[in-house]
Design a protein that fits this description.
Elements lengths: L4 H14 L4 H8 L3 H11 L3 H14 L3 H9 L14 H4 L2 H12 L15 H10 L8 E4 L2 E5 L3
Antiparallel strand pairs: 1-2
Length: 152
């Protein structure tokens, strides 16, 4: 952690944010790496419950910043009380069980297939059956040229 002007402002914000907070929250945040703490402060502002949840999960499961970012994007703090109907807790190590549960509970992101809006399962099956027969896959010629080439 350097002493750049930006980092000094972050430190001031850290002090102002957590100096009067609940001791449990202060202790949980104190155990986090600085980058994790900044991410939580930027993402959740004054939401003590969310910051406490992610701080405790990060500490107990040893999450990297990328795993923390994924957990935040999946909004795991909102789903922590939902019941599970799988055996991940029994069959996977503790750190991986919750992540596996979250991955299977989340909706699918099919943006790489060009599907941007919610889609019914039957429509997805029909789309999947077409894929092997598609012969045109557009590729960019290069990063400066916007022409599209078809591979056949």
């Amino acid at each position: 952690m350097g002493m750049s002007p930006r980092n000094l402002w972050y430190m001031k914000g850290f002090y102002e944010r957590f100096s009067e907070s609940d001791p449990k929250l202060r202790q949980a945040v104190a155990l986090l790496p600085w980058g994790h703490t900044l991410k939580l402060m930027q993402k959740f502002g004054n939401d003590d419950e969310a910051i406490l949840y992610y701080a405790q999960e990060t500490t107990s499961k040893g999450w990297s910043r990328d795993l923390l970012t994924n957990a935040i994007s999946m909004q795991m703090h909102l789903r922590k009380s939902e019941s599970t109907d799988n055996n991940f807790v029994l069959t996977l190590p503790t750190g991986q069980a919750q992540l596996a549960d979250e991955v299977f509970r989340s909706s699918y992101n099919l943006g790489f297939l060009g599907v941007r809006n919610p889609i019914l399962e039957t429509e997805l099956e029909a789309f999947g059956k077409e894929l092997p027969y598609r012969t045109e896959f557009p590729l960019m010629d290069n990063e400066h040229n916007n022409e599209v080439k078809d591979i056949k």
